[in-house]
Amino acid sequence: MRPTAPDRCFPAWIPIWLWGATFLSVSPLRGYAGTAPQLDEAKLPPPATNQVDFARDIRPLIEGHCYKCHAGDKPRSNFRLTSRETALKGGTQGTDLVPGRSAKSPLIYYVARLIPDMEMPPEGRGTPLTTEEVALLRAWIDQGLEWVPGQRESPALLTISPVFGGTAVSGDQHKFREVTRQPAGWNGGLDDFLVEQHPNPDTRITAAGHALRDDYKLTLSAQRNDLGFARFGWTQFRTYYDGTGGYDPQFLPAPLQLHNDLFLDTGRAWADFGLTLPRGPRIEVGYEYQYRRGEKSTLQWGPVSNGTDLRAIFPAAEDISEKVHVLKFKAEYEALGILLSDDFRGEWYHLERDRQNDISYAASSGAIALTKADEKASYFHGANVFHAEKQFTDWLFAGGGYLYSKLTSDASMDVQTLNIVALDPALAAPGWHSPRIDLKRESNVFSLSALLRPWQNLSLSLGVQNEWTRQEGIGAAEVDLAVPFDPYLITNIPPQQLSSSLDRAVFSQNCGLRFTGIPFTALFAEARFQQEDIGQYQEEDGGLTPFLLRADESRRLQDFRLGFNTSPWRRAEFSGELRRFDQHNDYNNSLQEIQGHPFQAYPGFMRSREVLSDQAQGRITLSLAPWVKAALMYQWINRKYHTATEEVDDPGPPVVTGGFASGANLLAGTYQAHIPSVNLTFTPARRLFLSTTFAYQNARTATADNGSPSVVPYQGNVYSAIASGSYVLGPKTDLVAGYSFSAADFSEKQPQDGLPLGIKYQQHSAQVGIKHQFTRSTAASLQYRFYHYDEPSSGGFNNFNAHAVFATVTLTLR
Amino acid sequence: MNRRRAVAGISAAAALTGLVCLLNSCSTTPATVLSPQTIPGATFVGNRACAECHANITRSFPSSPHARIHLREQDRPGQTGCESCHGPGSLHIAGGGGRGKSILNPGKDPAPCFECHRSVEAEFHLPQRHPVLESKMNCAQCHDPHGSDIFKAASGLAMARLNEACAQCHREQTRPMAFEHPALREGCTTCHSPHGSINAKLLTQRDLNLCLRCHAQTPGPGVSRGSVYIGNVDHTSLIRLGACWSSGCHTAVHGSNVDPRLRY
Fold this sequence. Notes:
The structure holds 2 protein chains of 2 kinds.
Chain A: H1 16-26, H2 54-65, H3 84-89, H4 106-111, H5 131-142, E1 156-171, H6 173-180, E2 185-197, E3 203-212, E4 215-224, E5 228-240, E6 263-275, E7 282-305, E8 310-335, E9 338-362, E10 368-393, E11 396-418, E12 429-455, E13 458-482, E14 489-490, E15 496-515, E16 521-541, E17 547-569, E18 572-593, E19 606-625, E20 628-645, E21 648-650, E22 656-661, E23 665-685, E24 688-703, E25 714-730, E26 733-745, E27 760-773, E28 778-790, E29 800-813
Parallel strand pairs in A: 7-9
Antiparallel strand pairs in A: 1-2, 1-29, 2-3, 3-4, 4-5, 5-6, 6-7, 7-8, 8-9, 9-10, 10-11, 11-12, 12-13, 13-14, 13-15, 15-16, 16-17, 17-18, 18-19, 19-20, 20-23, 21-22, 23-24, 24-25, 25-26, 26-27, 27-28, 28-29
Chain B: H1 2-25, H2 47-51, H3 55-58, H4 82-86, H5 90-94, H6 111-114, H7 118-123, E1 128-129, H8 164-167, H9 171-174, E2 179-180, E3 196-197, H10 209-215, E4 229-230, E5 233-234, E6 255-256
C-alpha cells in the first residue's frame, strides 16, 4: 500500500522519479535515509493474541479500508490487495507485506499512521484503522498471512439456460413477426449461457451468449490484469418485414401483399486485442466484419389503376447484401498529466441492392410493369481522431482534437423496365445505365472544449468545433425511355454526363452553465450556435432534362435551453426546461436550363427556409409514502416551418408577374404536440412490486395545401401503457406479470381526393410467469404470453392474435 | 398606474423573497426522491470513490446534460451522480472492479435510463422501433451519457457530427451520393423518430405533410385554389396517388447517383 494523497496535494504531473524519491526517503525497510522520520517499532500496537480468521476478521477490514484504491483494473501504485499472490507481490515500488514479520511490513506502519503524509487510508479517502484493527492485521501477518479466496475468486462458474416453447399465431403471421420481432411457431435453444473461469486471481476467462431461432450471440473473452485482453464474438439477429401495401377500399377490396418471406439478417463478428500494461500506453487493435443480407419491404409503393384513377398502393421490396470490413486501432497514453489518444477506423464497404417497384398495375387485368433498379456501391472510409485533454487546475479541464476522414467510392446503377407491354399507354419510363459513378469526400474537423469551475457551485462548459468537408461526384449514364408499344425503347436521347460537388464549412459553438448554489437545486442554461456555409454545384449534361445549378446555402442555427431541477422537500422533486430552436437557411441559386420547359426544373427553387421550435417540459416526482412513488411529466412542442421560393412568372401571354410562385414567405407547416405521461411505482408489501407507466401524445402536423383536398392534417392521438409486477410467492418461488398496450388513431378520410395513409391500430401484449428455485443450482420458469393486434386502417388484413408458452431451466455450477 | 406598478413590484419581490426563504428553510433536510438503482447487498459509496478509477469519465461529467441532476453528493450519496444510474458501488469496489462486475451498465440494459426517460420507454413499445427492448441495441450506442453532447457517438470529438450516430449502422442511407437530399444535411431526425413510431420506417409523418413542411411552394396569382405546385411543377394530380416517395416518383429519398430529382 503506497501513499496516494489527494490529487490537489500531489498533482499527477509530478514525475515518477519524484514519487520514487519520496518512497526511498520514507521506506521503513531502508531505514529512512536523509531527513525522514525515524520509526519506532515500539509505537506499533502489539499483535492480537487470538487466532485470526481471514474471512471473519481480515476480509471486511481490507475491503472496507483499502479496496477503494487497491483493487480493480487500475489499482493505485499498482498494488492490488485482492489475493495473497498480488498482496505479496507488492506495488510498483517494492514489497509491502512480509509473512510472519509484521514489524518489518511497511503496510503496518502506514495503517498505524506513524509516517507523516503517508497515512493509509489517506485523509478524506476512508476511515483510519482502529488500534484493534491494526493489531488484527499484525496478528494476521505474523500468523502466516492466510488468505481464503472469496466468492469473486471462485475458480469456475457455469450457467446454462435451455429454453423451449412456441407461438401459435392466428391472422397475419408476417405482421406478427414484424411487430413482435420474433418468429412464429417453435423456438428454443439456449436462452443464456455463461462460462467463467479464474485460472489465477489476475486472469479471467469467459464465454457467454445465446442461441435461439434466428438469433445468435457468442462472446469469448480472456483478460489478465496488467497485461491485456483478447475478445472475440459473433452475433446475428433477424428483422422481419410485412409486405402489405396501401389500403383504399375504393380501389381494391383488400390490400395487395408481397407473400415473400421478408427478413434481413444483421450480423457482426469481431476480434479485439488490447495491451493494458500498468506503465506505457493502452493499445487496442481490432477487426470487425459486419453484414446485412436479405429482403425487406419498402414504402416505395407503386401506382394501381382502377381504370379511371390511380393510387400508389402496390407494395415493394428490395434485396440487400451489405458487407463491411472494419479495422480499428486505438492508443491511449497519459504523460505529464495530459491524456493523449488516437483512434483510427478504416472501413471497406460493399453494397448490392436490387429493388423492384411497380410503375403500372391494372387492377382489372392484373397487368403489371415494374422498374428494376440494380445498384452497387463500394467505398473505403478512413477516419482518424487525435485527442488530448488535461486537468490544468482544480477548476480548469480542457481538451482538443482533430479528426481527418476520407472516403473514396465507386458505384454503378442500372434501371430498366420489366414487362414493358403492360405499361400504361399514357406513361413512358426512363431507364438509366450507368457503369461507374465516382465519389469522394474529405473532412477536416477541429475541436476545442473546456470545463471551468471557478466557484464550487458553478460550472461552465465551452466548446467550439469547426468542420470543412468537400465532396465530389462524377458519372455518366445512357438514358432511354421505355414505352408500351413497338419498338418499346426510345434510345435517341443524348448520353448523360453527371457531376456534382459540395463544399461545406460548419462552425459550431456551445456553452453550458450550471449553478448549484441554491440548496438542493441545480439551475442550468445552455446555448448552441452553428453557422454553416455550403457551395453546391450540380450538372446534368445531356439526358432528359439537362441543367446546371450553382447554389450557395447559408444556414444559421441557434438552440437555447434553460431549466432547473430542485428537491426542496425530501419527498418531492421538480424539474422544468424551456427550449427554443431556430434554424434559418438562405439559398442563392443560379439555375441554368440547357433545354426543356423553363418550369420543369425542380432543383434550386427555394430561396429561404426557417424552422422555429419552442418546447417546454416539466416533471414532478413525489414519494407519496415509503411504498408509493409517482412521477408526472408533461412535454409541449410547437414548431413552425416557413419557406420562401423563387418568384416564377406565369409565361402568359400576358405574363403574370409571380404567376406561378409569388416568392413571398409562406407558413409551409406547423407541428404541435402535447405529451403527458405518468408513472406509478408501488411496493405495498415487501413481496409485491408494481410499476405502471401511461403516456399520451396528441400531435398535429398541418402544411400549406392551397385548398387542395388531397392534403389533410396528419393528426391524432397515441396512447401507451406499460405495467409490470412481481410477487414473491415463497422463499423459492416468484410470480411475474407484465402488460403493454399502445393504440393510435391517425386515420384520414379523403378517399375521393387522395390516399388515406394515416394508421389506426391497437395492440396488447400480456405475459405471466412463475419461477421456482428447486435446488441451489437448479431453477425453472414457465411463461405464457398473449398478443393481440388490430389495425382497422389496413382493413383488418394485418390483424393477429398469438399465444406463446416457453419453459426455461437454469443450471448453475460452481 | 404607478400604484399598480408598485403593488406588482412589491408582490414580485415578496414572492421571490418567499421562494428564497422556502429554499433556505429546506436546506437542512435531505433530498431528493430520485430513485437510485439497487444491487442486492450493495451500498452507496459516493462519487469520489468512483473517481478513483474512472477519472477519465468523472472529470468531464459536469459538462454533461446528465449532470443537471447532479446535486450535492454529501447529502445522499448514490442519489446524485454515478450511482444514480450505475447502482450502489460497494460490491463493485470490494470485488476489485471490472467491466460489469457487481455494477449496473445502462449501456447493456436500458432500465436505469427509463427510470427518468419514461416517455422514451413508451416509444420503444410502439409497433415500429429500434430493438432496444429486445437487447439488440442499447442507449449508449447512439448517446454519450457522460460527455457534453448527449448525441455524440463513442470515440468522437467533443460534439456530435451530423448523423454520426445513425451512420454507424445505416451506411446505405448515409453514404455520399452524387445528388443528395438536402434534408440529410439537417439530420436524419428531420424525417425519422429514432426511438419508436407508429409509422413504418420510423417516419414522423406518413403522408404528404412530411415533405410539404419544407417543399410547399408559395402559390402565385396564376395558381388556382386547390392546385399544388412543388418545384415549379404542378403536382395537383400526382399527390392524389399518395406520398411523394410512395407514388412511384421520388423513390430515392436519401439521394440518387443518377437523378437530381431523386426519382431513382
